[in-house]
Design goal:
The chain has nine helices and eight strands. It is an alpha/beta fold.
Length: 222
Amino acid sequence: VKELLSIGIQPDVIVLRSEKPIGEDVKKKIALFCNVREDCVIENLDLPLLYEVPLALRDEKLDEIVCRRLSLDTRGPDLSDWISMVHTALSLTDSVKIALVGKYVELRDAYLSVAEALTHGGIGNHVNVDVQWVDSEKITDENVGEVLKDVDGVLVPGGFGERGIEGMIIAIRWARENKVPFLGICLGMQLAIVEYARDVMGLKDANSAEFDPQSKNHVIDL
């Protein structure tokens, strides 16, 4: 904040991320030295569930402060649906395991939207979703049964390039043959078509033109 002030940028609000509650004396010092109103020093504690944060910030009156600064009406928000969702999420007892089979699982933020969508779907169906991150490059015909044996569903998300796709196809085949629910998104759906063409229709060289331009059976040709 000191550096910002030195170049002429004056904050209106300071939000303090913290693992433990921040005392009023600390807030007063921060307000004094950062040249902001004391009520504009906002506590943002770590919480068990991300979706509790908007409610915590509401309790700190951040919404009122922002509306006041922007000269907007401060009508009270109806957060009843959000509160109900948070209550449901915090009281879940049942769980399901979903294998997310991809090539970028070491960088999980690459699939953040997919993982969050699974979380949302779980809340809507009153279950915790335990995402099992499975590296498609490590799946083989020999180990797929062991890798996926305890999962309730298999999801293959989007991606680009040839790397890791054969492992995804093996996982898709396993899900089909074992009647485990499967969801393919983008690349995942394309590979489900490839797998079916190869293993059910007998088109052994079926592929996507992206991965094998020489194949005589391009079941995906974009």
